Amino acid sequence: xxxxxxxxxxxxxAKSDNNNELDSLAQEVINETLRSWEAYKQHAWGHDxxxxxxxxxxxxxxxxxxxxxxxxxxxxKLMRLExxxxxxxxxxxxxxxxxxxxxxxxxxxxxxxxxxxxxxxELSGNKLVLEKTxxxxxxxxxxxxxxxxxxxxWVNLKTGLAxxxxxxxxxxxxxxFEMGILSYYSQNPAYYQAAKKATLxxxxxxxxxxxxxDVINVETGEWVSKQSHICAGVDSYYEYLYKSYLxxxxxxxxxxxxxxxxxxxxxxxxxxxxxxxxxxVDMTSGELQSSVITLYDAFFPAILALSGDxxxxxxxxxxxxxxxxxxxxxxxVYDYKKGTPNYPVYDLNPEIIESTYYLYHFTQDKKYxxxxxxxxxxIKKYCRTEVAFTSVKNVETMGKRDYMPTFFFAETLKYxxxxxxxxxxxxRFNDYLFNTEAHPFKRNSFDKRQVKIRLGL
Length: 457
Ligand code: DMJ
Description:
Radius of gyration: 22 Å
Number of helices: 16
CATH architecture of the domain at 21-59 and 298-420: Alpha/alpha barrel
Strand content: 5-15%
Shape: globular
Largest sheet: 3 strands, antiparallel
Helix content: 40-55%
Bound molecules: 1-deoxymannojirimycin
CATH class of the domain at 21-59 and 298-420: Mainly Alpha
Strand order of the largest sheet: 3-4-5
Distance between the termini: 64 Å
Structural class: alpha+beta
Low-confidence stretches: 1-8
């Protein structure tokens, strides 16, 4: 009797102790975000990137595009830092002008600026933000005017002059998600249609065994490199096949995803040292060419989990967790057969943290919570500076380099916060999809019947 009445109370206490710990961690992530944001404002306001060691700033191009604040907005908003978020929104509406003689990288500004502004519109409902967003997208569109429909590498935001004939697959076809959302909001199918054409241009150039290469010429449609992989330079192509299919229900993208995931799992995977790896193979023969991978590839457990392959997601996540433990952070490029880093930089990247968050959501297994606690603790240990956080030059020595990438605000801090605040129930994972830069969009904002009309399906 006594035992029975004791048990539930003990459990409740344990649960609330656990929740108290998580509440404190979530609050700590908010405090660290705020601290880094204040540092940006003090040392880099109006510019693209904070340099946290020299306490100065850097722009990507000859004129700033305000990339850190645009990337930071959705994170600040989810953390309910309303004053800070409003300040960005006001600046975007009142002072940001894209009439700039800047040659911008089409891929990078799509995921960060277009994606960031679209989520700013979604989270604020401010129509003036949507006007800026459309203006920006219209400046990107000339890049897609190529014989293949695959965008050029650069576009001049003022003149529309596009240049750069060689792009990797991620740069070629990571657009359907943002452009689909913009087509929906603007009721103009042109954006989605351009993005979809680029995606299909990649898929239609697959080999007989169904694999694609990784670098292509946008004018001729010839593969410049025929290596097939899911690493940096290809990653978000696959991510957007599945996420855009989920968001808009376009059966063509569903078909391409279904075909692609089969051949990826068939040809790219290998077991090495009892771990699951996705290597690099020749797109024609399917033969393994290289065991060099990048930390960006750690996005893949998230996509596997989202698409229902939880077993493989969990197995792959173990590999990434193992690699993290080997160094205490992850090297940018690593050869899993040699067991050495080819490029030992860690740039505060989010992918492993993102996948941990997804797996925690789907399995509710506390080991994933522990993983993200460990990643957070290591990042604080090795990357925290007096004013913010910074990248690491070499994960073997932990020497710092002076750079805080914009995706640290957009993604890394957001995924930590969402993991630790998950029990509070304010953000329901199932209601949202994230673009590849972690900007969140509500799934039910996109009515499937309207999608067909507005995206031109
Ligand atoms: C981000 O800019 C995006 O997630 C992109 O798709 C690749 N990875 C970087 C951060 O590592």
